Amino acid sequence: MLQQFIGTYGDRGRGGAYYYVGPEIHGVWQGTGAEVVSNSEGISVMVDGDRELFTWKNVFQFGTLAIVLKKDDEAAWTISLNENFNFHTDASIPASGNITLYEATMDKTVPFVLERTGEYGEN
């Protein structure tokens, strides 16, 4: 069984409150070879054309900077907030900066750096 534990330090807010990474990254995030969508259903990950939805019950937060997405009780992906990530207390203003998607595997992989490209369902 593959488990993943993430140690995070600091935050991407103003340091005064705890926040949840999943909802803070709502919208569509894209980069070379990967896409992440965070919406009311959960978080979906698409890599090389294969999309998988992780409902909110399969999203686990570690600290204030990262979440682990699990499939069949095993870690599948980690999403972290990059140092340039910025969110706003006013939810009508979208987050900016980057997030990074890491595959949970014992093999060597290259992380995907993603940028927010819009809201889910926008054309």
Automatic annotation (TrEMBL):
Instruction: Specify the protein name.
Output: Uncharacterized protein
Q: Can you name the source organism?
A: Alkalihalobacillus alcalophilus ATCC 27647 = CGMCC 1.3604
Q: Which domain of life is it from?
A: Bacteria
| Organism phylogeny | Bacteria, Bacillati, Bacillota, Bacilli, Bacillales
